[in-house]
Design brief:
Elements lengths: L22 H5 L7 H8 L12 E7 L3 H12 L5 E5 L14 E2 L7 H22 L10 E5 L2 H16 L5 E3 L1 H7 L10 E5 L3 E2 L2 H14 L3 E4 L3 E7 L14 E7 L4 E9 L5 H6 L8 E10 L11 E4 L4 E6 L2 E6 L25 H12 L10 E11 L6 E4 L6 E5 L5 H18 L23 H14 L17 E2 L3 H6 L2 E6 L2 E7 L19 H13 L2 E4 L4 E6 L3 H8 L11 E7 L5 E11 L2 E6 L4 H10 L8 E4 L4 E7 L3 H6 L14 E6 L2 E6 L8 E7 L3 H15 L3 E2 L2 H10 L35 H14 L4 E8 L11 E4 L2 E12 L4 E9 L7 H6 L2 E5 L2 E8 L14
The chain binds flavin-adenine dinucleotide.
The site of flavin-adenine dinucleotide has 39 residues, from helix 3, strand 2, strand 12, strand 16 and helix 10.
């Protein structure tokens, strides 16, 4: 999601000029240790501790591709006194041995695709022009092979999305693959996805070019300087605006005891990042795993200008290297490396290859190029690379420590995305908030939880994370490892009801329920109807027509209390949340520039006690948003009460009758948006009349120790008399999508404004003191008035044909021309087709109702166009009559 006015670089087309394919590149292969001469040219005159400054504005720790890129971009945007400290030599960690693949094809994330495109442009054009130093980019092309139906379907979706992002990806035939890479076996190839100017970079040259650029812009680079710790303080010395509730960075300590004062520290310590972060309480759950490639002896037939070929069905990428071929592997299950501690002296290191484990993968991979089978192996290389629990990088300001930033956990695409990561983080550091032109919700460090750094968790998850690299990314896939880390107190009862559980931020949560006597299992993952489709439909209909029970205990819940709690939350919230006691308020939280930070409810339980409820994925984001804005003298106390309350949602037109049968409270006299304690059995329960599915419904917050008791009463009475049905998250997803309810982190993010998301109704412009971001919202309103409307608006999309499924990344077209991607989608069992949300943007003119109605809209799903309805208002119950029934 890129927005021109705010972050213009992001929409610049990538790669206007390309580095010529020179002999030098053949010699300086990515696996050569060619650092020494470049380090002399670029780094060593600043080496030596005697030249170290006493203070700096920013200290970057780590001189791999990422640290170098961060230092370069910080210096380039004008930050002064930036220094980079590298423990040993530049590139000596992971960077020196990377294969250097640069493929802009392959991701359904706009952020990742942006980073790839920008990085390619940086290596191929920007750095050589700016520094005169060749970053070693070779535009030899890249081909992704589709050798089975699911991959073909998936890559067609990805290709459409990547084209929307400006990547020139072409679907080519097996014969065309053969023309470009004649040794490739193509009998089983269904298609290739070819990007002509993708290719490979030399990681060492790219790092040295970044370092040269950093120095040209004024940064200083020091090798042989190991940072042993970070100094912190609660006292504001540099920036009065920073909160004093959280500590802040004051500098670094070196292994020789020397200290350097600093306003900002950036942890770019690669696979050491977790243990380095731990020294000051920063949670970074990345973990190194073994990662392999094999280089064959010389093969006369190989032409070094052949493209990179990737065959994920055989776990391999193949490219020319040193006169022969390189076979790089991503096996289905990786092997962790040094879970307890990464050795501090591991430099330019290699790991002894495990031939027994990797042999079968290698054999299968080499079948893609049969001529390679009888060629000798020059090198079977194994090096460590760090992976994260969700295969996305760790970027941004640490929630635990102000002015401590992190860029680590690159999941084997650190060279490919390194430029983009550096650019985004530099902007983040300069502004003190994430750039509004890039969706950072999927890469933000604050999405992780402390338990994910446990050795047992890392050891198990890292193997799956590496294995995910080449798996088909089915939309409903859920991780298989580290299951059972968190369980609702209702878990065993839900299991007895035949729940199929998925991992929801670590919580075991029902996705759907199988009928009694049927095994709750996914028989075959797919992009369409799976075996559980009928169960899902029944749960959906039960909620629309009767009453359904959802266990939502994973929701993030915070008690915010104290004399200043109301005014504090009111300032953060677009809506007035400090009104009557017993009022639930749906609201947004914005940053000062008016961009979305959170989407949640705030309930006023008493004059000085509030409950904030947010989605599971935004747990630490919401908590940190509050802490960073809390003055130390404010009478406000924030407690995370997520585990203290189980949450049961009873939703559907019969929910009131069921609840009335269980409580002495008068549920007829319990209006929408009302919250009150009610009795159920022996328990006192906070009951909120609110919905996320578009029906009459209630959310019950039950002290965890009484939740089983309350659940049993609800189920016994509900099943006997009211046809109560258990429902899972798939039903929640389809119900909310029909009503076009938003979900921050999925269909809305930090690049959007409250008005663009159609949530302007939450803004109370007249409340005393206003709210954070009000100036920007008012300015946007004025601008829209002049323009005749907003140029960017969220719409709901309903596919008219009941057959196809739509997913994130499919393309919404107007008159056959791609307009934007579908941000999130589900299947509307009531509306009768796939339904989703999208953000339409026009360059000059407003997105109005009449412009939408005049359009001929289709959705491109894997290359096929399906007519669809596009609407600004929810298609299901647009006047919300069912909710207020
Ligand atoms: C076999 C293999 C093939 C790969 N192929 C590709 C590819 O084709 N394309 C791609 O994009 N990626 C590839 N990668 C991944 C890529 O190499 C990494 O993602 C990338 O190098 C990570 O860069 P980094 O800067 O985060 O880490 P590093 O390069 O490890 O840099 C971290 C630096 O921090 C320093 N450091 C640590 N602690 C301290 C301290 N306390 N004080 C000072 N300095 C410290 C270290 O010495 C190190 O130099 C591959 C990886 C492997 C193993």
């Amino acid at each position: 999601m890129m927005r021109q006015p705010v972050f213009p670089r992001l929409i610049r087309s990538s790669c206007q000029k390309k580095s010529p394919f020179t002999n030098k590149h053949n010699r300086a292969s990515s696996i050569c240790r060619c650092f020494s001469s470049t380090a002399e040219n670029n780094g060593s005159q600043e080496s030596g501790k005697k030249n170290l400054p006493e203070s700096a504005s920013v200290v970057v720790v780590g001189g791999g591709i990422i640290g170098s890129s961060v230092a370069y971009h910080l210096a380039k945007i004008g930050m002064e006194d930036v220094i980079l400290l590298e423990r040993d030599k530049l590139t000596s960690g992971t960077t020196w041995h990377a294969a250097g693949l640069i493929n802009t094809f392959g991701s359904l994330s706009s952020t990742s695709t942006y980073m790839r495109k920008y990085t390619k442009e940086l290596y191929s054009t920007i750095l050589p022009e700016e520094t005169g130093y060749d970053a070693g980019y070779m535009p030899i092309g890249f081909i992704e092979l589709a050798c089975d139906r699911d991959r073909l379907h998936y890559y067609r979706r990805v290709a459409a999305f990547n084209r929307l992002c400006g990547v020139d990806v072409r679907e080519i035939s097996a014969d065309q693959v053969k023309e470009k890479f004649p040794l490739c076996e193509t009998k089983d190839v269904l298609a290739g996805f070819y990007v002509p100017d993708d290719g490979r970079a030399n990681p060492t040259d790219a790092t040295m070019a970044l370092v040269k650029g950093a120095k040209l812009h004024g940064a200083k680079i020091f090798e042989g300087v190991s940072v042993s710790g970070v100094t912190t303080s609660y006292v504001s010395e540099f920036n009065e605006k920073l909160s004093t509730v959280l500590p802040r960075v004051t500098g670094v300590t070196l292994s020789n005891g020397h200290q350097i004062e600093a306003k900002v520290v950036v942890n770019c310590a690669g696979m050491w990042a977790r243990q380095f972060g731990e020294k000051c309480g920063v949670n970074i759950p990345n973990q190194a795993a073994e990662h392999y490639y094999l280089i064959t002896d010389k093969m006369d037939e190989v032409d070094p200008s052949w493209p990179v070929v990737e065959d994920s069905s055989r776990c391999v990428y193949i490219r020319p290297e040193g006169g022969g071929l390189m076979f790089g592997l991503f096996e289905w299950c990786g092997e962790p490396w040094n879970v307890n501690k990464i050795p501090g002296d591991f430099s330019f290191g290699e790991i002894e290859p495990d031939w027994d484990r990797m042999g079968p993968y290698l054999e299968d991979a080499m079948m893609r190029v049969p001529a390679s089978i009888n060629v000798g192996a020059k090198k079977f290389f194994c090096g460590p690379e760090s992976f994260t629990p969700d295969n996305c990088p760790v970027v941004g300001e640490a929630p635990e420590l102000q002015n401590y930033y992190v860029a680590a956990g690159l999941n084997s695409i650190g060279i490919l995305t390194g430029g983009g990561i550096g650019q985004i983080l530099a902007e983040w550091i300069q502004n003190g908030s994430a750039p509004s032109g890039v969706d950072v919700t999927g890469i933000n460090i604050n999405r992780f939880h402390k338990y994910q750094s446990n050795p047992a968790y890392r050891a198990e998850r890292v193997g799956e994370a590496l294995g995910n690299t080449y798996r088909v990314h089915y939309p409903d896939h859920t991780p298989k490892t580290c299951r059972g880390a968190k369980k609702s107190v209702l878990h065993d009862r839900l299991m007895q009801k035949n729940a199929y559980f998925r991992d929801v931020s670590g919580w075991e949560s029902p996705s759907w329920f199988a009928p009694a006597g049927t095994q709750p299992a996914v028989e075959q993952e797919s992009f369409g109807r799976e075996n559980w489709f009928p169960y899902w439909e029944e749960e959906h209909r039960a909620c629309r027509e009767g009453v359904a029970l959802f266990d939502m205990s994973f929701m993030s819940k915070f008690a915010v209390q104290g004399d200043d709690a109301g005014s504090f939350l009111n300032f953060l919230s677009t809506a007035n949340v400090d009104d009557e006691v017993g009022r639930i308020t749906y609201t947004q939280w914005l940053n000062v520039d008016g961009y979305m930070e959170a989407d949640l409810t705030v309930t006023k339980l008493s004059h000085n006690k509030f409950m904030v409820v947010a989605t599971d994925t935004m747990h630490n984001h919401v908590l940190t948003h509050m802490k960073r804005r809390l003055a130390s003298d404010a009478h406000v106390f924030i407690s995370d009460v997520t585990g203290a309350y189980a949450q049961i949602n009873l939703q559907g037109p019969r929910s009131r009758d069921l609840l009335q049968a269980l409580t002495s409270a008068d549920m007829q006299d319990f209006p929408f948006r009302n919250a009150a304690e009610i009795d159920i059995g022996y328990a006192r329960v906070i009951c909120m009349r609110i919905t996320y599915v578009g029906e009459l419904g209630y959310e019950l917050f039950i002290p965890a120790e009484q939740a089983q008791h309350v659940y049993d009463l609800i189920v016994e009475r509900g099943e006997e008399e009211f046809g109560l049905r258990h429902a899972g998250l798939r039903a929640l997803g389809s119900l909310r999508m029909e009503k076009a309810y938003r979900d921050y982190g999925h269909d809305m993010d930090n690049t959007d404004t409250v008005l663009e998301c159609g949530l302007g109704f939450t803004c109370d412009y007249d409340k005393p003191g206003g709210f954070m971001g009000i100036g920007a919202v008012l300015a946007e309103k004025t601008g829209a008035k002049i323009m005749g409307g907003l140029t960017r608006r969220m719409v709901q999309v309903l596919v008219q044909d009941p057959e196809p499924f739509m997913h994130h990344g499919d393309i919404l077209c107007r008159g056959g021309t791609p307009a934007c991607e579908i941000r999130a989608a589900s299947f509307g069992h009531t509306l009768g087709g796939a339904v989703g949300l999208a953000m339409i943007e026009r360059q000059e003119d407003p997105v109005t109702k009449s412009w939408i109605n005049d359009g001929d809209w289709t959705v491109n799903i894997a290359g096929n166009a399906f007519p669809c309805t596009v609407s600004l208002a929810p298609i299901y119950d647009p006047n919300s009559e069912r909710i207020r029934a």
